[in-house]
Amino acid sequence: MIMAASSAPVQDSRSDVFQADTDQFKGVILTPQHYGLLSPTEFERRLQASLAVWQEEGRRGVWVKIPLTQSELVPSAAKLGLQFHHAHCDHLMMTKWLPTSEPNNLPDFAHHYIGVAGFVVNAEGQVLLVQEKWLKRLSLRHWKLPGGHTEKGEELWETAIRETFEETGVKTEFVAMLCFRHMHEYRWGTDDIYFVCLLRPLTTDITVNPAEIAEAKWTDVNAYIGDPETTTTNRLIAQSYKDGLASGSFIQPVSFPHFFANKKDLVFYSNRPLDEEDRRKEKSEPHTKL
Question: N or C end of the chain: smaller count of CB under 10 Å?
Answer without folding.
Answer: C
